[in-house]
Amino acid sequence: MVTRRICGQASTVSNPHYDAPVRYPVEQFTAEERAILTPHFTNLERPVFALVNLPETVKGALFARYSRYSGTVRRLYLEEFAADAPAGGRPFDEEEGARAAQLYERVFVGYGDDSIAQVGGAHVACEWVSNILTKLLQRGRLAAYLEQSTRYIPYDQPLPGGGYRFYRDEELGSEFAAAMDEIFAIYSRSLTEVEAWAAERWPRGDGEPEGPWQRSIRAKALDLLRGLLPAATLSHVGIYASGQAYEQLILRLMASPLPEAREYGGMILDELKQVVPSFVSRVERPDRGGEWISYLERRREQTESWVSRLGLDRRGGGEDAPSVELIHVDGSEEDLLAACLFEAASAPETEVLARIDVLDRSERGELLTALAGDRANRRHRPGRGFEALRYRFEIVSDYGAFRDLQRHRMLTCQWQRLGPDLGAGVPDEVREAGAGGEFERALEVSREEYERLVGAGLPELAPYALSLAYRIRYTLDLNAREAMHLIELRSGREGHPSYRAVAQAMHERIAAIHPGVAATMSHVDTSAEPRLERIMSEIRTHRRQVRAAEQTEAPPGLNPLG
After folding, report:
1. Is the separation of the CB atoms in 360 and 368 below 8 Å?
2. Same domain (yes/no): 248, 204
3. Going edge to edge, which strands form the sheet with 412-415?
4. Are residues 400 and 538 in the same domain?
5. CATH of the domain at 416
6. What is the pLDDT of residues 5-34, one digit of tens each?
7. Structural domain harbouring 236
8. Per mean pLDDT, which of 202-216, 218-232, 315-329 is the most reliable?
9. What string of DSSP letters covers 220-277?
10. Radius of gyration of the chain (CA)
């Protein structure tokens, strides 16, 4: 093994402070070994390289051996995995090989070491899933999701086999299909009407290309009418996740009371068995996946039993209006400052806090501004010290806005079952376009079908019938760093007014108790439009009513003075 020097200038991104040469060993390979390695490693000389043309489970198995193998991963491949490779350096053709399978059997299944299922992943497409199931698919944090948008894609076209794009199940009955057909027919008629109104309201400017203008008019109409679509509307979701995340996803789906969720859980398992079989090998074992699914089912049943016992399942609670309430705060601005200074300091955190305690208000503000840094854009975010402060919001918004906010990963989102009791709103622009009556008719049909399904003993399936304009209650529990990301992103003027209002209200509530933290969120878009102003007015009215009832601005556990 020889030693080679490398300098920072070799990178396209360099920093003069870190460009001193570094020495590192370079492993020597024979010509025969190089021929075996070259198809699967992007280089054979440098200490940083990528693994290519290998099944995900083989890559994971190689990394899993790192902890108990004294050599390099390229040498490990030669010694323990190359024998499984097809001749001539060809790809594995998605077969994981005997060596990888044996390793997973021993370590993953035998020892229960879940970490090795974190170092390999797969892309899975789930198509024709309802807007109820999309939220179950996207509940896991450690995965990446892309979903077909109800804001930019019209849903007035029939499915390939005929009929509108909504979830069908014999258990839902013919009445359900008839109700959905009526709602989609209203959507289709209204789309034409609202699009014509929008074209007249925002005519094409002189010199404005017709194509982009037409697309903007179509987007405005789709945006206004998406609340009319039912939760049964079918969408497509693309998922990239690790083997461990997929195992958890499949178990959750298999334990769900929804037939659609269980069906898709089984299909996801079938497809993953073709590409990453070892990662999901525990799911079908009665003593592993079987017991796990039974545990999840019992846990749900016991929770529902206690909810009923405590009288928390009675319908009719809540007001018919959107709201954003800050119900709990954990930490203070001083805690955040101390955490931001901690890593650069050489003193214990108690001493850091003591030094901060002697600073006056203006000095603390100056310190906080310096620690947040000069943020040229919203992607420039402060460090982990901002995670020392945590907020818990209880939100009531339409289901469409919830769908967008629930996608954020670095927070805890919990939501109640969608129902009609919190009401729904009709956009003022839809009324101006002359489609308000049709929109209200769709909401009425939606609610009536919901009530029919509940009365038929199908409360778990009833939310499929409800339009996305109906409101849902949920909580977002997040630290100040994630709050900065969510609020700045979702307040942007290109966003939907429903979630823009939620983001702006969250910022207002943080500013009321932690003005310094709110001030660091310098890329919050506070611009308004008529629809956004109306929603914000409703949220602020609700806040005043709550304030009058509570006679305090402080959430539980927080000094009213902050």
Report:
1. no
2. yes
3. 323-330, 390-398, 471-479, 412-415
4. yes
5. 3.30.1360.170
6. 555 444 444 455 555 677 888 899 999 999
7. 122-309
8. 218-232
9. HHHHHHGGGSBTTBEEEEEEEEEHHHHHHHHHHHHT-S-HHHHHHHHHHHHHHHHH-G
10. 28
> Both tokens of residue 165?
């794009």
pLDDT 10s digits, 443-457: 999 999 999 999 999
What token pair was written down for 104? 């997973």
The single-letter code of the amino acid at 511 is A
Give the separation between CA 131 and CA 233, rounded to whole angstroms.
Answer: 6
Query: Cα–chain-centroid distance for residue 244?
Result: 17
Helix-strand-coil split of the chain, %, nearest 5: 55, 15, 35
Q: Are strands 143-147 and 234-242 parallel, antiparallel or unpaired?
A: antiparallel
Dihedral angle, C-alpha 261, 266, 270, 273, nearest 10 °: 90
Six token digits for residue 361: 């208000």
Report the phi/psi class of residue 53: left, alpha or beta, with left for phi > 0 and alpha for psi in -120 to 50: left
Residue 459 lies in a domain: no
Count: domains in the chain = 3
Rounded Cα gap, residues 254 and 279, in angstroms: 17
Among 90, 119, 148, identify where a domain stops. Answer: 119
* Burial (Cβ within 10 Å: 0-12, 13-18, ≥19) of residue 552: exposed
